[in-house]
Amino acid sequence: MWRASILTLYPEMFPGPLGVSLSGEALAGGKWALETRNIRDFGQGRHRAVDDTPAGGGPGMVIRADVLAQAIDALGDDGRPRLLMSPRGTPLTQPHVRALAAGEGAVIVCGRFEGVDQRVIEARSLQEVSIGDYVLSGGELGAMVLIDACVRLLPGVMGGETSGEEESFENGLLEYPHYTRPLGFEGRDIPDVLRSGHHRNIAAWRRAQSEALTQARRPDLWEKRVPTRPRNK
């Protein structure tokens, strides 16, 4: 069973959105498991302190290395990757999601405050992962995004075995537009090719739409797919 173990200061945030729709049904059906551990249980002193002022000065607080190390060690080491949700981490991509979904799960640390002491990141081999170029109040929402992306790929979670094969990023392109009934909507009709029944033409149209959307909206993805041709001198 795919297992997600969450280390957080706010375990009450889970399962949250993960408890509904596909991920919620899969959780209830035993296709994956979720556990949360409160980092504060390993805090220091009477007030269970988990943070301290940054060495060298500066604003905010930093989660202590010794506290977080104890929380991680309490889970044991079963070989699952240990991830730290962080805006400075490696961007989460669909290939990365597929690799995680194919494994046994993950241990996910949700940072807070100004961040986590670098020494525990190194000592416990935490892999920093980012869901985008922006900063959130903590890692919990990022952890939910990562888990949802993985869980939907687990066997039996989506309706059909091929449900995820033509989605955005699966082939390096954004997904083509979708249509359904009614045939006409506010003066806009479903493209004729989609009503033609000609599967080869439909596939070609969808491919062309994906390529056009990717070029227009994500030139960074397009450049990775199409090598830059040398200019004629």
From TrEMBL:
Enzyme class at the top of the EC tree: transferase
UniProt EC number: 2.1.1.228
Transmembrane portions of the chain: none
Residues where S-adenosyl-L-methionine binds: 111, 131-136
InterPro entries: Alpha/beta_knot_MTases (IPR029028), tRNA_m1G_MeTrfase_C_sf (IPR023148), tRNA_m1G_MeTrfase_TrmD (IPR002649), tRNA_m1G_MTases_N (IPR029026), tRNA_MeTrfase_TRMD/TRM10 (IPR016009)
Residues covered by region (Disordered): 210-233
Family stated for the protein in its record: Belongs to the RNA methyltransferase TrmD family.
Protein name per the record: tRNA (guanine-N(1)-)-methyltransferase
Organism expressing this protein natively: Labrys monachus
Gene: trmD
